[in-house]
Design goal:
mainly alpha, binds zinc ion
Length: 302
């Protein structure tokens, strides 16, 4: 996700009258593109998506502000306090085992939740969508300029996720007066991992030489999202490998990229119920105006 990205899909496509969305999904991307005409490219106008594959958007802010830091460290403190209160309730081997199992379960759940979240913002809504609009635009901007995530300072990169999680983190801490140890460590761990997904995502875009040794080792071991697995998401039309904590769910959810995959089924369900088709059913339009060396010309990313 790229905060501050100016690109935003102007509207969500509805299924053409009389068409079968299930059949639509069954056709090739190229066929669907031809049939969709300009609809496939309505997400980004030249004016709304400046920049190119090689030029960092000068309008974007990559430094962390005090507000970014306040959201990130404030929520982290709440979650750490919840986790520690949970640990303080562990007094015997059985509760220790239950707490450890809760941490593992939280790790797996967090990866799945980030997949759901990433899939939803990649495919539905627009920059004008209430509450989620900036995040939807940011994810779309990330597909166009994926390298910028590596330029961001830590709190700048993750604060958009920590911010909405803060009230929930406060609620988790308040609930520790009544909850058991496994619940405390489960909620705090899952929430922190989801909040950190943008950092795991950024690491998956960095060169091996840029990564801390521990992160490189965790990626190699499959504990954190690897560059190879996330690289597969960055292939048009961005229709798979949505999970961005560890990526352990991706293979099972994508079912080899077939129409039997979890997200394809979900998309057909949504389309059948609402008539709204996901963006990944169409190839994205990467044409935009680039002003470089005083010359305005069309740029097309690969
Ligand atoms: Zn994406
Ligand atoms: Zn990415």
């Amino acid at each position: 996700m790229q905060q501050g990205a100016s690109a935003a899909c102007s509207s969500q496509r509805a299924a053409p009258a009389g068409s079968s969305t299930v059949q639509q999904r069954g056709r090739s991307v190229e066929q669907r593109s031809l049939e969709a005409g300009t609809a496939a490219g309505d997400c980004f106008s030249p004016a709304s998506a400046p920049g190119s594959k090689h030029v960092v958007d000068q309008g974007e802010e990559y430094h962390s502000t005090w507000a970014h830091r306040a959201w990130v460290w404030g929520a982290t403190a709440l979650l750490a306090a919840t986790f520690l209160r949970g640990c303080a309730k562990v007094h015997d081997p059985v509760s220790a085992l239950a707490a450890a199992a809760a941490v593992v379960a939280a790790y797996y759940l967090a990866d799945f939740l980030t997949g759901m979240y990433h899939w939803s913002v990649d495919n539905y809504g627009s920059g004008a969508t209430p509450i989620m609009g900036s995040q939807i635009a940011a994810f779309q901007g990330h597909h166009q300029r994926p390298w910028t995530i590596t330029k961001r300072e830590f709190c700048n990169n993750v604060h958009e996720v920590f911010k909405p999680a803060t009230p929930f983190a406060a609620l988790c801490l308040a609930a520790t007066s009544w909850t058991a140890a496994p619940a405390d460590v489960f909620l705090s761990t899952a929430t922190l991992l989801v909040c950190m997904c943008q950092q795991f995502h950024a690491w998956a875009h960095m060169k091996k030489s840029q990564l801390p040794a521990a992160v490189d080792a965790l990626q190699a071991a499959g504990v954190l999202l690897s560059r190879r697995i996330h690289g597969m998401h960055h292939r048009t039309p961005f229709e798979g490998n949505y999970c961005i904590v560890s990526g352990v769910w991706n293979e099972a959810l994508d079912a080899g990229g077939s129409d039997a995959g979890f997200f394809r089924r979900l998309e057909r369900f949504v389309a059948a119920r609402t008539g709204v088709e996901p963006r990944c059913w169409y190839p994205p339009d990467y044409s935009w105006q680039e002003e470089e060396n005083g010359v305005v010309h069309e740029a097309r990313a690969k």
